């Protein structure tokens, strides 16, 4: 018995230390050990919370071989805090801290925590607009985005041109989602239906800077039909912009991103980057040439993969 008591005290002390200082995988492993739960039991408890995660994924998480990335995985982390009797936000906080790089190397943008909160808000706003689950009934064949940076270095405007194909009958709308830069005011933004659609209901969330707009098609699609539509979002409500990031939930068609800079706000350098998720480190970075007369940079991805893709720039 003394040995068992000493082991329990050691496990509790190790857990307390890991929750204070991390990293995430050490804290998760310590929490599972302190509760004496095999991974199969952890998986069972998660399923009772309505979250499906494989034993292999749980093993990878506690080894540090992978980190929770997808929305479903992040919901699992919140459920794990309850299952393992941990303080609320304790594991989520460690994931957020893991995403923070040293000052000077980390681009100024939304933090991991802010992106996680925005993801939760987006799910709620889409539910309010009755968006069907999944991809909304269409596959993306092509997506071209054009970003305009204004004279005060702000994200002034975004225009999106979509080419989609319906994979079931009755599709008659899409959802436009816009994430403003930190400090933006979504209620002051304007959505413009530019081609083959009209604006329906609009929802915003001030704290996370998320805007969601319903785009109503001019026709109801049948299975196999293709459709082109274009819309724009006037922003200009935040401060200095330093990057634009686009997230992709699944593999899809071609994606092109172009950033145009005002003559009064030309950056000194630009680069592209990739990121598996908000919780993952960035990679795939390389410099992009800035065109002289038109002051723009672009990237083209022939076939997008799940994850995040973006362009960043330095002002000095």
Which structural traits does this protein have?
316 residues, Immunoglobulin-like, 2 domains, four-stranded antiparallel sheet, 29% helix, 35% strand, globular, disordered N terminus, XRE family transcriptional regulator
Describe this protein's structure.
The protein has 316 residues and is of the alpha+beta class. The protein folds into 2 domains: 2-97, no CATH class; 112-314, Immunoglobulin-like. It contains 7 helices and 13 strands. Strands 4-7-2-1-9-12 form a 6-stranded mixed sheet, with no helix packed on it. Strand 1 (138-149) and strand 2 form a beta hairpin. Helix 1 (2-21) runs antiparallel to helix 2. The protein is globular and about 60 Å long. Mean pLDDT is 85; it is low at 1-10 and 100-108. It comes from Streptomyces olivaceus. This is XRE family transcriptional regulator.
């Amino acid at each position: 018995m003394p040995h068992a008591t000493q082991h329990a005290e050691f496990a509790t002390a190790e857990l307390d230390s890991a929750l204070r200082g991390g990293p995430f995988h050490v804290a998760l492993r310590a929490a599972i050990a302190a509760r004496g739960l095999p991974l199969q039991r952890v998986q069972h408890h998660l399923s009772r919370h309505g979250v499906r995660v494989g034993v292999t994924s749980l093993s990878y998480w506690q080894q540090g071989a992978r980190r929770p990335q997808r929305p479903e995985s992040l919901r699992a982390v919140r459920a794990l805090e309850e299952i393992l009797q941990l303080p609320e936000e304790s594991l989520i906080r460690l994931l957020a801290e893991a995403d923070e790089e040293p000052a000077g190397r980390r681009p100024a943008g939304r933090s991991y925590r802010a992106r996680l909160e925005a993801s939760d808000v987006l799910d709620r706003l889409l539910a309010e607009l009755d968006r069907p689950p999944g991809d909304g009934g269409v596959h993306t064949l092509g997506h071209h985005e054009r970003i305009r940076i204004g004279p005060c270095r702000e994200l002034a405007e975004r225009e999106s041109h979509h080419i989609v194909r319906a994979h079931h009958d009755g599709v008659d709308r899409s959802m436009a989602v816009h994430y403003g830069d930190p400090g933006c005011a979504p209620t002051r933004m304007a959505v413009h239906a530019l081609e083959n659609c009209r604006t329906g209901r609009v929802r915003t969330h001030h704290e996370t800077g998320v805007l969601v707009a319903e785009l109503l098609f001019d026709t109801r699609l049948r299975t196999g039909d293709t459709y082109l539509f274009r819309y724009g979002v006037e922003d200009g409500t935040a401060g200095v912009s330093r990057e634009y990031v686009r997230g992709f939930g699944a593999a899809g068609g071609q994606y092109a991103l172009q950033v145009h800079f005002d003559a009064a706000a030309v950056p000194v350098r630009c680069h592209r980057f990739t990121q598996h998720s908000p919780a993952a480190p960035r990679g795939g970075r390389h410099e992009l040439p800035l065109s002289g007369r038109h002051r723009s940079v672009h990237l083209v991805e022939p076939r997008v993969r799940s994850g995040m893709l973006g362009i960043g720039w330095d002002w000095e």
